[in-house]
Structure formats: C-alpha cells, structure tokens
Write a structure and sequence with these properties.
The complex is a heterodimer of chains A (294) and B (266).
Chain A (H helix, E strand, L loop, with lengths): L2 H10 L1 H30 L3 E3 L2 E3 L5 H8 L1 H35 L5 H13 L2 H11 L5 H8 L14 H11 L1 H13 L3 H9 L4 H29 L3 H6 L7 H11 L3 H25 L1 H4 L3
Antiparallel strand pairs in A: 1-2
Chain B lengths: L1 H25 L16 H8 L1 H34 L5 H9 L6 H14 L6 H26 L2 H9 L4 H30 L2 H6 L6 H8 L6 H32 L10
The chains are: A mainly alpha (294), B mainly alpha (266).
Chain lengths: 294, 266
C-alpha cells in the first residue's frame, strides 16, 4: 500500500475526520494563545532597560514583585475584591436561578433567561461608566435615600473605592453566575424533592438536604466563572475604583504602556494567573465531596 | 413564593438600571451628567453626526466585527462538528483548550498577544485586533453551534448518504440548512461581542481606534460626556436589536429540529 493511500485511509477513520475538523481552531488557539502565553512566561525571566531587552535568565522580577509592598498589596487587594465580588454575585444570583427554575412556567423560562442576559451584551464601558453616575455624590442612589429621609448627607463609601468596584462587577457578572446555577437546578429530578417531602422533611430542610447539594456543581461553576475573570478586570477599577480600588490589571497595563517595563508587567501577569489557578484548584479540591458523582 | 418574585423583579431593576438611565442623559439638555434633568434636546445626536474621528472609529469597528464574526463562526463550525460527531484522541483536552479564552482574564489575553506580536515584528493594527477578537469569540460560537449539532437528528445525514448523495452535497443540502439558524445566531453574537470589546482593542489597535477605544478616550473630557451618552444609547439599541434577531434565529432552529425550547444562549 502506498504512502498516500495509507494517509487517505487514516483521514477516513472517525478519529482522523475528527482531528482534521478540529485542527483549524486548535492550531489557531495554539498560535494565538499558547504561544503568546509562553512568550509572557519567557519575558518574566528577562529584564528591560528603557527600550532594550536583556535576555539573560533571572528571577529578579519575581523577587521584586514579591518583596515590593506596592505589588503584593495590589495583588492581595485584587484577590480580596474578586473574592468579595464572587460571594456577592453568587449569593444574589442563586435566588434568581431558583426562582426561574422552580417557579416560572416552563414556556416562560427562556424569556426570563433572555431578559437576564440582555444587559450583559450591551457595551461594557458604558455600563461601568453609568455606575459612576448612579453611585455619584449627587446621583440617583443618594438622591432617593435622602429624599426618603433615610440618610441626611450623601453616602461617600459607595464611590471611588473597593465597594464601588464590588457593586459594579457584581452587576457585570450576574448572568455568568445565574446561568450555571440555573442549569444545575434544571437537572434536578423533581420527584426527589417530592420524596423528601413525603418522608416528612420540611420545605426548608428539603432545600438544604436535597436541592442545595444537587445544585453544588452549578454553584462551583458559577464561583469559578466569576472569580477568574474579575481578578484581571481593568475598566471597573479605573472608572469607579479611585485610588483605593486599583487592581493588579491596572498595574500590569502601567508597566507595559507607561513604564516601558514589559518584563515586570509579564511577571505580574504570571503571578496573577498562578494565584488564580492555585485558588481555583484548591476550591475544586475542597468542594469535590459535594460535587462529585454526577 | 411571592417574596421570591418581588426579589426577582428588584434584581431585574438592578440589572437594567444603567441601560434605563442612559437615554435619559442622552436627551437631557445639560452638560452635566446628574439629576435633576434639564429638558429635552437632540443636540448630542447632531453633534455625533458631525464628529469626524467617530466615523473612522465606527468604520474600523464594523470592519473588525464583520471579519471576526465570519472567522470565529467558521472555527466554531469546525470545532462543534468535530466535538458532536467524532471521537478522537485528546478530544476533551483539545476542545477545552479552544474554549479557554472564555474564562481567561481578558487583560492576560491582551498583553500576551501584544508582546508576542511585537516580538515577531507585527505592529498593532486592525488585523491584530481581529486576531484577538476571533480568539475570544470562537468559544461563544462553539457553545451556540454545539446546541445546533446536538439537536440535529444524525439519521437525516445517513439517509442522504444512503440515497446516493456525496459527503459534500449531504453537507450542503441537509446539514447546512438545519444548522443555518445556529450559524446566523453565532454570527450575530460574535459581531456584538467584537463591537463592544474594549481591552484587547485598547492594547492592539495602535492608531486605528475602534468605537470602544474612542469612547474610552472621550471619557476623560467632562464636556464630551453627553455626546458619549448619545453614542451609548445608539450602541445599546443596536446590541438589543442584534440579540433579539439572534434569539429569533436560535428559536427557529429549535423548531426546525422539532424540539422544545430549553433556555437561552451559553
């Protein structure tokens, strides 16, 4: 059998066809994602003096990044803010997912999901900027609260600090938390809940002993899908964060664009990615008990 | 469960608050973005029409979004087809890697692309933005098209082959029409994502700004804010129109496949 015939036959098998089909997007992702991420990793071991890059291997960037209080402060603040955003977003999202899954007529569910996702698809910049307007000193929140006589003077803790970043990101990532929780709630066999009630469990006990454990895979997916991207958010801290709400992405941008220190920017990016990965893996590991077996 | 319903409606108000406020300020006859509102005006929209730099940015953005939508949807078709119809070694890992940009922080994608491009001697341009946008849009396209392929009855294709059609004509006559609503939905969603994307465009667009990059630059000038609100209003209306159309096509695809509607995108 000739070489070409053998090759042709290999392409005709199921796995051959599959590999041929998946090759274009996979190669694209290798060139446009894996290679650039590799470059960033390389850069983090180099140094830069003004515009010339010194390609000798060194760990100086990591030493500086970990010892300089400015960088570690920013990193911990980013992790703290992303953690708070995740908790707030998932806690706010769960009742909505539960409501749509359990209390909305089946033919209305997709309309509700559509309504929930629409704001997410509209210009991110504009949405974040409008939170600055909403939370402002003379904005609608303060205006309403003062008009109702609940507060005497405008709240100052809701804009240009970490709180503002948390509120705005909890808004921006809402659908990311609602959808996975909704999907896992939809998968729950309703007869299990009836069985629990028939066996004498109260409504609340049924929720905590049957519904919630079965929804855990969705909750975990929601936690990860909110936590990972929020660490690297740039726009929100810049627009509503003030100086107390600056995050690691702002420093990465400054290193690349302003200070001409690409290696330091790369190092910070690598450290941020590593922290996110470690925390995510820990989370998956710790919650394995509740999420496995499905 | 009345309490839950009240909560759900309050939550929707929270979700829609920025979008509801936007047009109020776009038509407000005052340069300060704050309450109380002054009066009705169309000045800011007229001003938009007169801003030359804005027109260039719009042309850039539309070109990028159209190209991105087509390329990402092609990649999405390949990957979704491979994932739904074939088994091959390393399937989970390969498809997982292609989906990775969905969860990666965008700043990481943006800086790594910038550094890599400068290393190989490419300078930032419209094409580098397209390269980045295709990367982040492909996972969305795959997610949408996965639904289309999973809903399609495999025996229809087998019947066509049994009746003497070639693989190519089967694809054209049977597969493509059945998946077409998914393709249209994917094109529209990728277009919308690319049109709104800021971080990657900010890092990779060089001196050919897209709409969001132009908008970002204008945010520094307080006097320009009402014009931004007008522009934002147009963008939001456009996004909503595109989404409603995409949703319409997605549902039509489900009906064609004879299935019940189970949920939205993603």
């Amino acid at each position: 059998m000739s070489q070409t015939a053998r090759l042709r036959r290999a392409f005709r098998t199921d796995s051959g066809k599959g590999l041929t089909l998946v090759a274009p997007p996979f190669i694209y992702a290798l060139v446009m994602l894996a290679a650039p991420l590799g470059t960033i990793l390389l850069f983090s071991f180099w140094t830069q003096d003004f515009l010339t890059i010194d390609r000798t291997f060194t760990l100086d960037n990591y030493r500086e990044a970990l010892s300089d209080p400015l960088y570690s402060e920013l990193l911990f603040r980013s992790l703290r803010i992303a953690g708070a955003v995740t908790v707030v977003t998932v806690l706010l999202a769960f009742p909505i997912a539960y409501f749509v899954s359990f209390h909305v007529r089946p033919d209305r569910k997709s309309l509700w999901l559509f309504l929930i996702t629409i704001p997410f698809w509209t210009s991110y910049l504009i949405r974040v900027f409008l939170w600055r307007v909403i939370l402002a000193f003379d904005g609608p929140v303060n205006g309403t609260l003062m008009g109702l006589g609940i507060i005497d003077e405008p709240l100052s803790w809701i804009l240009y600090n970490a709180n503002a970043v948390i509120i705005t990101l909890a808004h921006a990532f809402a659908p990311f938390a609602i959808l996975p929780i909704f999907v896992s709630l939809e998968k729950i066999d309703r007869s299990l809940l009836e069985a629990a009630r028939d066996l004498g469990e109260s409504r609340v006990a049924t929720f905590f002993r049957v519904t919630l454990p079965l929804a855990m895979p969705g909750v975990l997916a929601a936690i990860l899908i909110v936590f990972i991207p929020t660490i690297g958010d740039y726009v929100t801290p810049r627009l509503v964060g003030g100086s107390g709400g600056t995050m690691i992405a702002n420093m990465i941008q400054t290193q690349f664009m302003r200070l001409n220190n690409a290696p330091m920017g790369a190092t910070l990016a690598v450290i941020a990615m590593l922290s996110v990965t470690v925390i995510s893996l820990l989370l998956v590991f710790v919650t394995r008990r509740w999420t496995r077996g499905r | 469960m009345r309490g839950l319903k009240v909560y759900a409606i309050t939550y929707l108000v929270f979700l829609y608050a920025p979008i509801i406020l936007l047009p109020l300020f776009a038509f407000n006859d005052g340069t300060i973005i704050a309450f109380p509102l002054q009066g009705f005006t169309l000045d800011w929209f007229v001003e938009l029409a007169r801003t030359e730099a804005l027109h260039d940015a719009t042309v850039n953005s539309i070109f990028i979004a159209v190209t991105t939508a087509i390329l990402a949807t092609c990649f999405g078709l390949f990957a979704a087809r491979a994932g739904n119809r074939h088994s091959f070694p390393g399937k989970g890992g390969i498809l997982g890697f292609v989906m990775l940009p969905l969860v990666l922080p965008e700043i990481i994608v943006a800086v790594s692309l910038l550094v890599a491009m400068l290393q190989v001697g490419l300078s930032p341009s419209i094409w580098t933005v397209i390269a980045g946008h295709v990367l982040i849009c492909t996972p969305f396209s795959i997610a949408i098209l996965n639904g289309s392929f999973a809903n399609m009855d495999k025996s229809l294709e087998e019947a066509a082959v049994d009746l003497g059609e070639t693989p190519v004509s089967t694809f054209r006559l049977v597969t493509l029409p059945l998946v077409m609503p998914g393709i249209v939905a994917s094109l529209l969603i990728c277009f919308t994502i690319s049109l709104d994307e800021f971080i990657i465009a900010f890092f990779l667009s060089g001196n050919e700004p897209t709409l969001p990059v132009y908008l970002w630059g204008q945010l520094r000038f307080p006097g320009r804010l009402p014009v931004i609100m007008a522009l934002g209003t147009i963008l939001v209306i456009l996004s909503i129109l595109l989404l409603v159309t995409a949703e319409y096509f997605r549902r039509r695809g489900l009906r064609r496949a004879g299935l019940e509607d189970t949920g939205g995108f993603l």
